[in-house]
Amino acid sequence: MTAGIGKFVAALLFGMTLTASSLAAEPVTPKLTDKLSSLLQKEMRSVQAAMTAIHSAMVMGQHEKVAENAQQIHDSFILAQSLTKQDRQDLMAAVPEDFVKLDQEFHQLSASLAEAGRNENTGQQHKLFGEMTRNCIQCHSTYVSDRFPGVQSISD
Ligand code: HEC
Question: How far apart are CA 104 and CA 34, in angstroms?
Fold first, then answer.
């Protein structure tokens, strides 16, 4: 009887541990090599600057500037840069598949935003800008929680 309850409690605890670990993904930052970390930080700072420029250009109807900056974000795609084979292996070892998926999604969105800039479509630019911002928050709240503990995950 006691053994039965013990097993039940153990199973319950095990289940709770699984749930907790699948909800809170571990930060990737401690797993990055120094080189990857500095490459990523550099990329992030230029993404940040480009997003700010896009926001201003968008609200002033400077479509060409929206397109240029969005294209620049797209072209700086860290996974597409000329990383050495070793860097690439280090990156894949450090980040889970979902992180790569988020990064890919983000860069697809930047390509669409560049397109919306070229098409002079303000409504579409606004929508895509919002989706990209959601993407920043999603990645930071899930994988950079050690550096950005204040960012909460947002639901759809
Ligand atoms: C796929 C994941 C991912 C996405 C999407 C993402 N980031 Fe980041 N970001 C990171 C990681 C990881 C770091 C921490 C890098 C480190 O410290 O090694 C970071 C750090 C940063 C930093 C700090 C850079 C520094 O100097 O240390 C800024 C600013 C930033 N991100 C802005 C953005 C903005 C703006 C967006 C969206 C437009 C965005 N990020 C989208 C993963 C992401």
Answer: 22
CB contact at 8 A, 30 and 104: no
Q: Which of 31, 32, 36, 44 to mutate to test the pocket of ligand 1 (most atoms within 8 A of CB)?
A: 44
Q: Can you give the residue range of the structural domain that contains 59?
A: 32-143
Flag whether 152 is in a domain: no
d(CA 138, CA 17): 23
The answer to whether residue 127 is domain-embedded is yes
Write down the pTM of the prediction. Answer: 0.85
Q: What is the 44 CA–ligand 1 centroid distance (Å)?
A: 5
Q: Whose CA is nearest to atom 24 of ligand 1?
A: 41
Q: Looking at the 3D structure of the chain, how many domains does it have?
A: 1
CATH number of the domain to which 117 belongs: 1.20.120.10
- pLDDT per position in the chain (156 positions), as tens? 556 666 655 665 555 554 444 456 889 999 999 988 988 898 899 899 999 999 999 999 999 999 999 999 998 765 556 678 888 889 889 999 999 899 999 999 999 999 999 999 999 999 999 999 999 999 999 999 999 999 999 876
Residue 133 falls inside a structural domain: yes
CA distance 121 to 99: 30
Ligand 1 pocket: which residues have CB below 6 Å?
28-29, 32, 37, 40-41, 44-45, 47-48, 51, 99, 102-103, 106, 132, 135-136, 139-140, 143-144, 147
Please check whether residue 88 lies inside any domain of the structure: yes
